[in-house]
Design a protein that fits this description.
about 40% helix; globular; binds pyridoxal-5'-phosphate; 3-stranded antiparallel β-sheet; single chain; Aspartate Aminotransferase, domain 2; about 400 residues; about 15% strand
Length: about 400
């Protein structure tokens, strides 16, 4: 294996930067690199237009996007928030940190997404929000979730961290719930220098609350400048030019303009970057089809899967090798770093100490015992993909 292919297969870089990003960074630097300024506004407008939503607000990361969505919805003690156990800790943690009760709904064994069929029995009058995760880049069954949301009055917060550019019956991820929450972490399908996030919504009131809490709930009152609003009753101006007030105690989850300038360019490249991911997935499907004991990803009807990760299930009784041995041998014998995303959240110490027990979400647990994720990123060459296929066939003991 050449050093180049080893590099491709040992690293899971999410995106590719080029000269356009370099130029954009220098341009913002020369404007003294402000925090959320003109580049952020341009990025937000372009992102909302891409997703087909009326509003978007940039923030510091995907966790902040989820957290602010729940803050905007008024989630707090006494409320219940439901999500999938098969996700990154952030999705489960945000409700907990706001003092809400967090519970899980088991997954669908084919798509690995939250199973709407099991959602109904988990709903109580206190359920304020459900956070479906478009896992690995494939949208959840949003029609079924939405029907329950309308019937029971909870808000749907899409965790679209993996689903930048993914589609559901022609509509973009992020335009399907009360809010859509994106991550631009270094391993995601597009990135804003390693960290970053975005919240999308079509609800102007919710947007206003989210925007306020993102930046210390600050409002500036005054007589002029486009940033000020006039409220003579609340703050008689007299000779005062402007007055800054804070509606409540909020947070600083702003994005910087350098990140946003890079994000704007990454967004323009997103469809192309995703097309490469889809081509890699198709090549893997082609090469691995028919290998005994492997379950390849299934794309549900009406979905555009953007393969943030390529999930593969291994049946040890048929393939002849357990998941743990597979991961170990792929790394040490073939130089390929295979992932194991994600440990079911109710197995984590964080949720075990909140009373969850092993065995509670059997589908997620069975899937986790067998599921690996293969390297998937646009740097991967066809040669690298073919080497991966050959390695998986070589390790098989069937
Ligand atoms: C499913 C999911 N949700 C939320 C997040 C949180 O995003 P961030 O790391 O940008 O805070 C991640 C990050 O990896 C994720 O994978």
């Amino acid at each position: 294996m050449s050093p180049e292919i080893r590099f491709e297969l040992e690293n899971k870089f999410g995106s590719i930067y080029g000269e356009e990003e370099e130029r954009a960074i220098v341009e913002v630097l020369r404007q003294n690199a402000p925090t959320s300024g003109n580049a952020c506004v341009a990025f937000e407008e372009a992102f909302a237009a891409y997703c087909g939503t009326s509003h978007a607000r940039a923030c510091s990361n995907g966790t902040a996007a989820l957290f602010l969505s729940l803050v905007g919805l008024g989630v707090g003690p006494g409320d219940r928030v439901l999500t999938t156990p098969m996700t990154w800790i952030a999705t489960g943690a945000v409700g907990v940190t706001l003092g809400a009760e967090v519970d899980f709904v088991d997954i669908d064994s084919v798509t690995y997404n939250l199973d709407p069929g099991q959602l109904r029995e988990k709903l109580t009058p206190n359920t304020k929000a459900v956070i479906p995760v478009h896992l690995y880049g494939q949208c959840c069954d949003m029609d079924a979730i939405d029907a329950l949301a309308k019937e029971h009055g909870f808000a749907v917060v899409e965790d679209a961290a993996h689903a930048l550019g993914a589609e559901y019956h022609g509509r973009k991820a992020g335009s399907l719930g009360a809010t859509g929450c994106f991550s631009f972490h270094e391993q995601k399908n597009m990135s804003t220098l390693g960290e970053g996030g975005m919240i999308t919504t079509n609800d102007p009131d919710l947007f206003e609350r989210i925007a306020l809490y993102r930046s210390h709930c600050t409002r500036v009152y005054g007589k002029s400048t486009k940033y000020c609003q006039l409220d003579e009753e609340k703050f008689p101006q007299g000779k005062r030019f402007w007055w800054q007030d804070f509606d409540d105690c909020g947070y600083n989850f702003r994005m910087t303009d350098i990140q946003a300038a890079v994000g704007l360019i990454q967004l323009r490249k997103l469809d192309e970057l995703n097309a490469r991911r889809i081509a890699i997935a198709e090549r893997l499907n082609e090469g691995l089809r028919g290998v005994p004991g492997l379950t390849l990803p299934t794309v549900a009807e009406g979905r555009k899967h953007v393969y943030h990760l390529y999930p593969l299930q291994i049946d040890p009784d048929v393939y002849g090798v357990t998941k743990d041995d597979f991961v170990h041998r792929m790394l040490h014998e073939r130089g390929i770093k295979v992932g194991t995303h994600y440990i079911p959240l109710h197995w984590s110490t964080a949720f075990q100490k909140r009373g969850f027990k092993r065995g509670q979400f059997p589908v997620a647990e069975q899937v986790f015992e067998r599921l690996v994720t293969l390297p998937s990123h646009p740097r991967l060459t066809d040669e690298g993909v073919d080497y991966m296929i050959e390695s998986i066939k070589a390790i098989c003991k069937c």
